[in-house]
Structure formats: C-alpha cells, structure tokens
Known about the structure:
- The protein has helices at 36-46, 61-66, 71-79, 83-86, 107-112, 115-118, 138-149, 209-215, 226-233, 254-265, 268-273, and strands spanning 5-9, 30-31, 34-35, 51-56, 95-100, 123-126, 130-133, 152-158, 168-174, 179-187, 197-205, 239-243, 247-250.
- The protein is of the alpha/beta class.
- Helix 8 packs across helix 9 (226-233).
- The protein starts with a strand and ends with a helix.
Amino acid sequence: MKIKKAIIPAAGYGTRSLPITKVLPKEMFPINGKPAIHYVVEEAVASGIEEILIVVSRNKNMIIDYFDRSLELETFLAETNKHHLLEKLSVPEAHIQFVRQPYAKGLGDALELGKPFINEEPFAVLLPDDLFIEKEQSLKQLIKVYEKFNSNVIGVQKVKKELLKNYGVIKEKNISTRLHEVVGIVEKPQTAPPSNLAVVGRYVLHPDIFSFLMKTKPGVGGEIQLTDALKEMLKERNCYGYEVSGERYDIGSHKDYYKLLKKMNNDKDYLDEL
C-alpha cells in the first residue's frame, strides 16, 4: 500500500532551546527565510506524502498560522505590484490538518491523537527536530524499505558512544550494508547501549502500532514512549532499521542549528536560487 499520510509531532516545550522557545516554537526557527518545519513538510511531500497531520500544543498557533493563507498580505502584494513576493508565500502542496495535544505526555501520546486521521493505513512519522541534507529524502529511503518488506522501518544513524544516552538505540541483526533487522530497542540507555545505531526521527509504521501505544505505560521521563510500543510490537511484527544517508542536523542543539545555517549559506546550489 502506498504511504500517503504522515504525522509531524510538534507539541513539545522545546526546553533545550529556552528562553526563546517561551515565545517562538523551535519548529519555527528560521533557516534562510523559512521555518524549520517548512523543510520537514517539503521532505514529506517530496517523498510522496499527500496528507499531513501536525500535532501542536496550545502555545503553537504560530505553526497553524504559517501554513494558512494570509489573504490580506496577498492582496497587499498584488495591489503594490510586488507579485514576485507572492511566490515566497507558497507552502508545499499537501492537505495539512492540525490537532492539539493538551498535555506534553510524550511522542507516543502525540501519535495516539493521530489514530482517526491514519484510519488503518501505514504512515510516516517525521520529528521536526531532525533536518537532513541529502538529494534523496531520508523518508523516501525508508518508504522504499517498507514497500519491500511491508514492515515497520526506523531511520537510524551511527552515533558516538557518549551521545547514545540521548537517543533510542536499536539492537540489530545485520542484513546488508545499510539495512538491519531490529531485534531490540531501548529508549535513552544510560549504560550499555545495545549498539551504536541511534533512532534519528524518521519512521514508517504499520497502523497496528496504535494498539500497542494504547497499552504502553509511561516510561523514560514519565512519558508515553514510542520506543516502548515498538519494543512490544517486535514480539508480533518484524521491524527494520535503515541507515539513512545524508547529513543530519538537530535544530534543538545550538551547535547543530548554527552548523546548518552555515552549511546552507555556503551551499552554492542554494545561493544560485536566491
């Protein structure tokens, strides 16, 4: 079945980026004139996604406003002969819906809100903290694996041992150069991580995941963890980890955010488009 739907969870507090995230969602951090979440939606659409559900919280109306049309601004630009600026207001062509997460109970809880939207179809999940610079979108790479095996696929990359405590980490059985069968998964292991392959914010999931999320109890940080639901799902369904190619930037990290800005400002192809 074609993967047509995606969920983008964007309801977190953004505590790593305080104090600016008191007023500006990290998903709206500017990257060369466009907010970070714009690039994530672009990736989804370029990967074949047609419908997107963005999970927001009460203080993130700015995200909803961004993907809405501004008729007053469009009229002003047209009447003042600034038609060339109208192109800058365009957003990726997809049907975008929103739902609010009342309380920050974790990624698993945020995904549960999307069950009616998914309606028993396989779907993608894109975490907007992670941006990838790559010719072939990271999500598209995972969709190809899902279509081959009809099983859950998790995007992974090799991470330094001292940083694994900040990620979900898989225990794997190698299949090919980039492809692994997931035989175990742990959320933020503080000691003895099962491998150096960390989950990096891209998933393609079978809709059965919702039945496991409903039974998942709060885990690390007192939150409903998608990792814990996937761990239980492994008992009934295969899951694969695919090492996505491309450079990954975590916009919740000040270091990565500035590296991404520098990368894009020094990118000749990007500058030629300006």
